[in-house]
Amino acid sequence: MALMSYSQAAATALAEAMRADRNVVALGEDLGRGGIFAQYRGLQQEFGADRVIDTPISESTIMGAAVGMALAGLRPVVEMRVVDFALCAIDELVNQAAKNRYMFGGQGRVPLVVRMPIGLWTASAAQHSQSLEAWFAHIPGLTVVVPSAPADNYGLLHSALESGDPVVYLEHKELWGDEGEVEPGLRVPLGSARVLRAGSDVTLVSWSKAVRTCVDAASELASAGVSAEVIDLRTIWPWDRATVLGSAARTGALVVVHEAVQVGGFGAEIAASAAEETGCRVKRVGAPRIPSGYSKPLEDESRVTVAQVVAAARSLAAPGVHP
Amino acid sequence: MALMSYSQAAATALAEAMRADRNVVALGEDLGRGGIFAQYRGLQQEFGADRVIDTPISESTIMGAAVGMALAGLRPVVEMRVVDFALCAIDELVNQAAKNRYMFGGQGRVPLVVRMPIGLWTASAAQHSQSLEAWFAHIPGLTVVVPSAPADNYGLLHSALESGDPVVYLEHKELWGDEGEVEPGLRVPLGSARVLRAGSDVTLVSWSKAVRTCVDAASELASAGVSAEVIDLRTIWPWDRATVLGSAARTGALVVVHEAVQVGGFGAEIAASAAEETGCRVKRVGAPRIPSGYSKPLEDESRVTVAQVVAAARSLAAPGVHP
Amino acid sequence: MARIRAFENAAEIASQGGVQAWGLKTSAKPALVRGPLHLSTGQEAVAAGVCANLTRKDLLTSTHRGHGHTLAKGADVDRMMAELFGKATGSNRGKGGSMHIADFSVGMLGANGVVAAGMPIAVGAAQALKIRGQPEIVACFFGDGAVNRGPFLEALNWAVVYGLPVLFVCEDNRISATTPTGPMTGGAGAAARAESIGVPAVRVDGNDVEAVDAAAARLVAEVRAGSGPRLLHALTYRFKGHVSVDPGAYRDPAEVARALESDPLTIARDRLVARGVAADDIAAIDAAAAAEIDAAMAAAAAAPLPDPASAYTDIQNTGAGQWR
Amino acid sequence: MARIRAFENAAEIASQGGVQAWGLKTSAKPALVRGPLHLSTGQEAVAAGVCANLTRKDLLTSTHRGHGHTLAKGADVDRMMAELFGKATGSNRGKGGSMHIADFSVGMLGANGVVAAGMPIAVGAAQALKIRGQPEIVACFFGDGAVNRGPFLEALNWAVVYGLPVLFVCEDNRISATTPTGPMTGGAGAAARAESIGVPAVRVDGNDVEAVDAAAARLVAEVRAGSGPRLLHALTYRFKGHVSVDPGAYRDPAEVARALESDPLTIARDRLVARGVAADDIAAIDAAAAAEIDAAMAAAAAAPLPDPASAYTDIQNTGAGQWR
Ligand SMILES: Cc1ncc(C[n+]2csc(CCOP(=O)(O)OP(=O)(O)O)c2C)c(N)n1
Ligand SMILES: Cc1ncc(C[n+]2csc(CCOP(=O)(O)OP(=O)(O)O)c2C)c(N)n1
Ligand SMILES: [Mg+2]
Ligand SMILES: [Mg+2]
């Protein structure tokens, strides 16, 4: 076990994969300097500029070139800096990478991991703060990973690199500095959630940074006599239906929490699925449908809070009463 | 009243708006020839090449330039041909158009209507068949219009042009030839649904081409003794919560139907909202999470069918029994 | 060239009554080929002349108008035609159709439904070849309309920055769908833009297959030698409408008539005749092509449609087996 | 120039301890300016020299590094500084911050968080001016890194196709974030690319405000006369790191030291002195700038934060009043 930050955990996993397979390469802007969040620190020194590739400011071509690299035998990791800039490369991701294997009848595959950090990040305002995981979950051909902890960022990045098809890998910008124990060699399978806390009155489901909010809310709920189960999805496509629906069926109440805008967020998919399949009571907590503001009071309106989660859970959960 | 096709209805509304306001312009590829679906037929002849503008193949700049035009006093209508090509202009739409008014503190506004046809269209395969309305509904700053009939395409296009902020206007490629009566001067307000058929056992909600499927399903359900209410949302942002939730509360059962991929589709938002707010039973019918195939048997797998809607409705609705 | 022409003509006939577009109603008669076809009739010399200089292991990216490139790269005609017919025996198992025609087994990485989208893919493939130390190169075809999309700039720049083995080929038929490209293009076009980015470029008569071959031979040799990317700007003409159902009525008939006079096949045939090749030998080439295509048509017509269950395969490995 | 320098220096100090990035931890001390600042310190002559040739009604689009352009275009310093402080009195009501600084009342249509994104917006604004028959022009600023993004090509081409009144200004500080732009750029750069697209281009020493002014004057006159777009390629240097928290440690200190020797303010001052302007008069300019900025800082510090309810305004008119 080693203590690592969320960014180090990813850098470590990537370094291991690059050592194990010469076909793994990384490309993006400013990677030589370690990436702007230090998530590539040391890699160009170890693997050279041919495999840790500094690129021109050409998001479309970073993504599109990665598709071509993948088709020709490499396993590229693309760095988009923030998901907002990946909006310059959506044709390449959605029309090219995601559909390639299908469109060409399985002649080729695109083993590609696209890292595009999401989330609010101190006063970064409307164009550097989005959480767009719901978009990618809607696109056939894409796997969508949303790690919340260093160990997951290590174990999931390995699994993403091994998937053989395009993976949208969404790290949260306010988690880079978080530290945690990481077990070397760990693999976290895609599609497997983690139950962080068992509970019987209400199920709290979340991912990425909102997991923290749910953990804190569960403590607060416990003091109020409400027993909350907390589930970290870790990947939203595929998502761990068995764990979530099983829990929701047991507790009879599900709250989905995410930092993304609530309207059309992936919480709607989870809530709708749970309502369809278990008939449980559901509630969502997400950001209002507003752009992120620069000034703190405005930015704070886009943050999901412990109080909101507690209120949502209490509105659903009748402590001790099970349907 | 005049009998018009869905495409003529839009061309007529646009012509009226251009006659009324010199600042309304249209831009896109091949508009001079009337647009590839005849939805601009006759406009360049009437208004000239300065106002019905043929452009280079430059989707990013078509969209980005329209933002600039809007800031400088015009009211542009952008043609993207199919929504799939608009994926080359997502930064311009999402980071620039949608956020402009907010980001700059209300200093400017972007009165922009972006037409991007959606949907399956005979053997057009994976890159010309997508329905991505859920994406745009998730983005603060965008209004999302999904007309199903000629009269709505006329009345909603007028309202979109009058909104003063960015509107994503999604016509369905398999509806262009549909004919219907259109009343000159009609305005269909954004956010107002239309109840196509009243019913008491189950509520069917849909939009765009899937409305037809619901109407047919309702007839079939009627023969089976199930009374279905059919609601055409017409705009999915804003969506008519009062009409939908009111109906769902009455019938106790809601089926949302759309051609888009079901996972992460906007049906999830409607179903989740209804479950949250009315506690009704919910079910969704959408396409499986697969790219659209070229060959008919594959393409057909992505089409929502009357049989699917009937089955979903019957699974929820206990005829005559109200909770 | 004769094979490409025969393929395009046969496909065109098979598609009549297919996809509705251009404001036309669908015909009552069901078409053998349902989907849209972008025919390269009249442009055969570019595909043939360039691909004559490629090996089967070299890679190629194409456009929406990709039949000629695919055939010239050595793809199997039966599997191609079956793909247009949407059959299970098609190169893409019926999943892609004309607009996504591909044969990875001969290095043909696919037609593309998005203008210019093949360009970044091509440079990435070339970068993989370079990084992996392989001797092959990539040929990247695109139309004159594509030079006004951002990926043109980005991909050429990228190829220069990393010194990649790519031959860019601008197949310039002077039109983009229904719009003449000239007035939509600032400056002198593909070659001039390429030079400004540091990609040496050559212009050639794209209807003269020998000229294309000679120019491509020189450029391919340079690219293979590791000199970095090159661009070939080939001038040609699209004999048909933009897409199968488009009569192309927006073009001046006199222009079309003039263009038909420099049919690349006629030019090549006349030259062979002038060099003393027997008329019978030339006719035999045409006959062989016709026979091959007829057989492909028959096989495609007889082949089975894909199983609907195959709509759920070839998508992605999520490790979870969940598709809905 | 003196105002821009004073503004940047003050903003830099106010931002210390702000946004976490570059692998650094957030400092304990709360910063007056929380958000990222891209300072234009060292590049003042480009903004000043170009904007001297614009009217208040001309339009301007900017980059992430937009303070200088905004000030030079005549924006109100108090409202700008308040915006950086995230105050309700800011030009953007605290909604945008430095990266989105704007003052539409003087034609400054906004800084932009996306590299090259201002370019299509600029050409669209110019097209509106032309269509509406207005006499104004648009100045479009962008960095050397932006020339490798697609919108550079598309926007220049667009401006040529429609003959639009735009002056493109490449503010070339030879670096893109932490990466030298040269090795990432094929060919001779902005001016060469522009010429190939049909946009006449001029190179100038961007640290010599008189040279910038003279070149801009000529180009602006041509643009105003209806001759279509022009490009000014101004060579300059970024004195600071990429963003406020970046120490810029990846640059050779010798290079930075050399660059500091051609500080545009020093060059301008020396020239004034050589022409006999009194040292006191020059000092008075600096003092006035310092006083103005000090007042802006004090006003910004004292101003109220925005009401959280204002997070829900200035978004869109849906006709329905629903935000969630
Ligand atoms: C990004 C994008 N925009 C628009 C289209 C629609 N479209 C298909 S082909 C075409 C014309 C392309 O012209 P060119 O590149 O010259 O190729 P050609 O058809 O002449 O072979 C257009 C506009 C598209 N497929 N992709
Ligand atoms: C599309 C996009 N990609 C990446 C970034 C991150 N980024 C911000 S500024 C910058 C460097 C820009 O360099 P240049 O255009 O030369 O401007 P300068 O910072 O030197 O003024 C980068 C890569 C971005 N904002 N937008
Ligand atoms: Mg062409
Ligand atoms: Mg720079």
Overview of the molecule:
- The complex is a heterotetramer, with 2 copies of chain A (323 residues) and 2 copies of chain C (324 residues).
- Chain A has 323 residues and is α/β, with parallel strands linked by helices.
- Chain A has 2 domains: 2-182, Rossmann fold (3-Layer(aba) Sandwich); 194-316, Rossmann fold (3-Layer(aba) Sandwich).
- Chain A is 39% helix and 20% strand.
- Chain A is globular and about 60 Å long.
- Chain C is 40% helix and 10% strand.
- Chain C has one domain (2-19, 29-303): Thiamin diphosphate (ThDP)-binding fold, Pyr/PP domains (Rossmann fold, 3-Layer(aba) Sandwich), CATH 3.40.50.970.
- In chain C, α6 (150-161) links the parallel β2 and β3 (166-172).
- Chain C has helices at 2-14, 44-51, 67-72, 77-84, 118-131, 150-161, 190-197, 209-224, 253-261, 264-274, 279-302, and strands at 59-61, 138-143, 166-172, 175-176, 179-180, 201-205, 230-235.
- One thiamine diphosphate sits between chains D (63-65, 113-115, 143-146, 173, 175-177, 181, 238, 242) and A (29, 57, 59, 81, 85, 88).
Structural category of chain C is: alpha/beta
Query: Quaternary status of these chains?
Result: heterotetramer
CATH H-level superfamily title of the largest domain in chain A: Thiamin diphosphate (ThDP)-binding fold, Pyr/PP domains
Which word captures the global form of chain A?
globular
Parts with pLDDT < 50 across at least 5 consecutive residues of chain A: none
What percentage of residues of chain C falls in helices of 4 or more residues? 25-40%
CATH level-four homologous superfamily name of chain C? Thiamin diphosphate (ThDP)-binding fold, Pyr/PP domains
The total domain count of chain A is 2
Could you tell me the mean pLDDT of chain C?
Answer: 94
Helical amount among residues of chain A, as a percent range? 25-40%
Say which molecules are bound, naming each kind only once: thiamine diphosphate, magnesium ion
SSE sequence of chain A, one letter per element: EHEHEHEHHEHEHEEEEHEEHEHEHH
- Any idea of the CATH topology of chain C? Rossmann fold
Most extensive contact: A-C, 51 and 51 residues
